[in-house]
Each structure stands twice: as structure tokens, then as C-alpha cells.
Amino acid sequence: MKPIISVRNLSKKYIIGENIHGRGARTFRDIFDYKTKRLFRRGVKRSKEDKTLWALKDVSFDVDQGEVVGIIGRNGAGKSTLLKVLSRITEPTEGKVTIRGRVASLLEVGTGFSGELTGRENIFLNGCILGMKKTEIKKKFDEIVAFAEVEKFIDTPVKRYSSGMYVRLAFAVAAHLEPEILLVDEVLAVGDVTFQKKSMRKMREVSGAGRTVLFVSHNMLLIRTMCTRCILLRNGVLAASSEPGIVIDTYLATHREERLFRTIQERDHVYGVSKVRVEDIAFVDDSGAVLQEVLYHQPIRVQVHLRVISHIPAGKFSLSVMTAEGVRVFITHSLESDDEYHEFEPGRYLVEATLTNILKSGDYKIEFGGHQLPSALSICAVLDALYFHVSDQGYTPQDRLPFCNHSGIVDGQSLWTITSLEHTENGL
User: Fold this and answer.
1) DSSP letters of 169-214?
2) Rounded CA separation 328/336 (Å)
3) Angle between helices 163-176 and 119-129 (to 10 degrees)
4) Cα–chain-centroid distance for residue 360?
5) N or C: which end of the chain has fewer CB within 10 A?
6) Upper half-sphere CA count for residue 218 (Cβ side, 13 Å)
């Protein structure tokens, strides 16, 4: 049986800085923008190599019917470009893609729908694009609207929808109109947690019905539990394709040391409201030396250097410890040591936290955040502040706590009592 998706030597090249409408511009504004940028670029010499970006390079793989394939990799690895090529939104520069079946895609907010049309009209339009008859679409219509939870707004133009409403309807349409292939980017992160869980259940139903799903996600736990196979892209090149556990472990191990030594400016997902700037964050030992890993049951000491830009009358900071796959282990905050809110004047501060290490051997990450109280306004957040490894090297089973085993994430402690009710009842 032939694969439902066949990709051979696929490459996609972009020219950095070039206006995509430079040739065949569609409007006067396109032409004006393109000509103006060329005018200001005159005199600036750039090599062709400097202008060229290969988002994908010589990628080949097959996907069989009914497979659920996760696509992972760092930002800029080529994941979204691959889905756009498979969706026929983007033409490949080189190579060939063969698709045997109807494709429904949900890649980013704003694609797939016409903003001027109502939700109802867009449902029928998308069904027609997929080659469905009007009677087939009508049978699915009520189910789609109920799933998306947009009953009150179904006859409103979708340009007036919130991003959450838009994504809910777009996913409902893509999943319910029975395509043979469903392509989903991490756009589902826009929705609330309840809808995300409902979407995951629906994707399992879709794959269980023999249809094929490809989706991009940074949630390693989701990839591990949902997918039958995983593809790793690195700088546009196919680095691995195997069962999810093997590929995820390869991905995390490859980038562990690189992530350990990234400066705070190089880390992704640094947020705030211009009140606090995080300048550095690191694991340290008692002497203040930066650590690359933490030993089993060694306390975790985190130092954060930050600059307060404007006065904060009452604030607190928090650390979340998570597995490398995104499962939250626990959270701690500055109020645990001092239940008084701290007032911060503009200036530089050193924030230190020492955490009891109950973690098993493995890879973890820390998220750092700050809030102004009592409104809980976020004043800073670094979502991938630190990645670290807990090592049990040098420990023997006898060194570990007697109640520990090798399963789970943490070494929990508990107190047990065993009372013989038989002896109690007999008065013994």
C-alpha cells in the first residue's frame, strides 16, 4: 500500500529582505513598498549567501494512512514551513510532495477563513474546498458549531471573532469535515485549557478512524502520548524519524548543554511590563560557582540578577520546576519565606532561592516570574529560564532513601502506620 504522504528531497529557500511582491506585485502599495526598500538598499553590498535562507533542505520521509506524526524542533527549525508546503500554501523550491487524500489544515490564526464571511458561510466554503457535497456538510454543521461553542455568533463575520473563537471554529471545521489528512500547527495554544483537551480527544478520534494527523508542538509530553511517530527537524534538515520516545530523548539530550550556557538575552519567551528586567539567572553552589548539573538530593540554589525599572509597591517572585517535557512538578514563591510583600525601588537586586531537591535523575527546567500585588499583574516572566540535569552518578541503590524506586518524578516522603485490627478486637 502506497504511503498517504510521500516527501522526496524537499527544499524551501527564502531570500532574506526581499519583498515577496517584488515580481508580479498585485497592488500599487506593493509596488511602492518594494521600490522604496530597493532605493534605500542601494549602496549596501550583500552576498547572495547572506540573503539566502534554506528553511528546509533535502527532507525526505513517508507517512502511512492512520499515523499520528509529531514534528518537533527548535524555533526556526522549519516545522511550520513543512506544514505550509504540505498544505499547498507554499511552493517548494526543490523536491516533490505527493499527497493521496483530502487535506484540512489549521496552521495559524487568519488562514483558511474569509474574514468578511460569517461562521456559517465559512463552514460551507471549507467543506466545498474539501470536495464535500452540501448535504454532507449539513449533516456535520450542528456538531461543528456545538464543538466550537460559537452558536450565538455563527451568523457574525469571523473578522469580528476573538482569536479564541476563531481557532475553535477553525479546528472544529478541520476536524469534523472528514479529511483524510489533518495538519495542525501549535495554534491550538491560543485556546483555553478546556478546549485544548477537547481538541486532543478529537484528534485521537480522527486517528482512530484511520485518518492521518501531523502536528507541530513544543509540548513533549503531548507528542510522547499522542503520536505513533516523531520527526525532528534541525536547521531545516531531517535529523531523526522514529518512535516518539527515542526522538524526544535525542532532542532533549542534544540541546541540554547548549541551553545551559545560553545568556538570558538568548532565551525564548522573556516577558514583562517594563517594570523588571531579568539580567541573569543561574544555578550555583555554596561558593557561588555556576553549576551545569545538580546532584541527586543536592539542594537546588538559584540566583537571579534583576533590575527594577520603576517603583513596585508590593511584589513577589516565583519559581516553577517542570520536567523537560513541560509537566509541572511544583512551584515555590518568595512569600513562603517571608509572608510580607516586598517593596522595590528602582535599582539592581539579587534574588536567591534554595529548593529542596526531591527530583529523580533526569532533565528539568525552571520558569521564573514576578507579580505586583494585590492585582497579580505580571512584572516579568522567563518561561525557559534554566534547563538542568539531576544526576545520580556515584550513587548506589543503598545511598538512596530506602522508600525510593525508579518510577515517577520525585522522591516523595510519607508516614505509614500499620495496626492489627485482629489483635485489637480480641483485646490483645
Assistant:
1) HHHHHHHHS--SEEEE-GGGGGS-HHHHHHHHHHHHHHHHTT-EEE
2) 19
3) 40
4) 24
5) N
6) 15
What domains are defined for the chain? Answer: 5-255 (3.40.50.300), 264-391 (2.70.50.60)
DSSP letters, 23-60, are: SS--SHHHHHHHHHHHHHHTT----HHHHEEEEEEEEE
Instruction: Tell which residue, 124, 3, 17, has the closest CA to residue 66.
Output: 3
- Residues 240 and 142: their CA atoms lie apart, in Å, by 41
- Identify the three-state secondary structure at position 18: coil
Rg (CA), the chain: 26
Residue 51's identity, in one-letter code, is: K
Distance spanning both ends of the chain, measured CA to CA: 73
Measured over the CA atoms of residue 168, residue 163, residue 328 and residue 228, the dihedral's sign is positive
Gap between the Cα atoms of 159 and 293, Å rounded: 49
Residue 263, pLDDT above cutoff 60: no
Q: Are 204 and 236 in contact (CB under 8 A)?
A: no
pLDDT value of position 13: 92
- Give the three cell numbers for residue 325: 517535557
Which run of H or of E encompasses 350? Answer: strand 347-355
How many angstroms separate the CA atoms of 110 and 422, rounded?
69
Assigned C-alpha cell, 5: 504522504
Q: Is the pTM of this model over 0.70?
A: no
Phi-psi label, residue 136: left if phi above 0, alpha if psi -120 to 50, beta otherwise: alpha
| Residue-averaged pLDDT of the chain | 79
Query: Looking at this protein, which amino acid is placed at residue 19?
Result: N
What's the grid cell of residue 368? 521564573
Instruction: Compute the distance between CA of residue 296 and CA of residue 298 in angstroms, rounded to an integer.
Output: 6
Q: Which region among 115-119, 273-277, 345-349, 389-393 has the lowest average model confidence (pLDDT)?
A: 273-277
Amino acid symbol at 148: A
Q: What are phi and psi of 372, to 5 degrees?
A: -95, 135
